[in-house]
């Protein structure tokens, strides 16, 4: 029969493990950003599965290291050598960014956690510093690491954000390792973001859905 | 018959106390997840025979047994999923190439990309990923500028998964 001492020992073993509290305390400040890096990585995987090697670049030189923004920032900012990725598919050029602000159709700016943007728009905004226009957005994802149930307000805010991004965006989604049952219903109507809930390496089939959606939309967009 | 000489309530109290002693922030996160409660569908008993049963949503607190599962879910997110996100990002970035603007046109492996000519290097090699801590608009200084996202050895994650499974056994009633 298990005793409270057994339970206490099991808790200590979990917390004291090298992948336990020590690792958690090291990265908890950046857990949301680590999740964005994970979703960014899934975009790279989708591009690679289309037979293209994505290319990592930095705003002011080779991205060694590849730096993710710690907060919303502008695509032309050279405060650090922020990283992004580029790829070409069937003659169409794209870039993948994280934490970049866009100018919505209302002229209000919005941060998109991870996005695929038409390269010409991104390049123009680097040459003549400006926020990319909503029309340049191909795909945008909100990324939320949550250890409890996902907050409903995040879903509502992202629907509003995507509404202001106009109709050029081909793909949008809310990505989280967590879920909220009511948000699943909220995202059901057409043109609402896709609910990529429980998107985590622990659920490889959900990763496949994300990657396949990106691949399918990129193929469709670049086929003509 | 239970295989434990403690109740779910005692188990939850022990878990929260032990985590709280070591890391109050993590304990608070567990508490917030538990206190969010859950939605249930409740059916109203018809008052007359003609009335149809009516079902409505109601928010209720978790039972101690359910709260234990929620607490373990929080620990799983932080101790298992978070390192897996970093490892997955590291693996996907490793397969990408690094584009270096070409100073002269002599090098091999040149790719025309927009207006730039690039030398591509490092496909299949690990990349160093960093997250900015001191953001460009932040006036107050943080101790470090950036944080390295170091992959965690898979063996360590598997061991921690086994530790979590053991804890699940001890908190299943």
Beta strand % of chain B = 15-25%
Structural class of chain A: alpha/beta
Structural class of chain B: alpha+beta
Query: What spatial order of strands do you see in the largest sheet of chain A?
Result: 1-3-4-5-6-7-8
Give the strand line-up of the largest sheet of chain B: 3-5-4
Distance from N terminus to C terminus of chain B (CA atoms, Å) equals: 9 Å
Number of strands of chain A: 8
The helix tally of chain A amounts to 7
Q: Are there runs of chain B of 5+ residues with pLDDT below 50, and where?
A: 106-113
Give a quick account of the main beta sheet of chain B: strands, pairing sense, barrel closure: 3 strands, antiparallel
Based on CA inertia axes, which overall geometry of chain B fits? Answer: elongated
> Taking Cα atoms only, what radius of gyration of chain B do you get, to the nearest Å?
26 Å
The proportion of residues forming helix of chain A, as a percent range, comes to: 25-40%
Radius of gyration of chain A, in Å, reads 19 Å
Give the % helix of chain B: 40-55%
- Output the helix-strand order of chain B: HHEEHEEEEEH
The biggest beta sheet of chain A reads: 7 strands, mixed
Number of strands of chain B: 7
Helices and strands of chain A, in order, run as: HHHEEEEEHEHEHEH
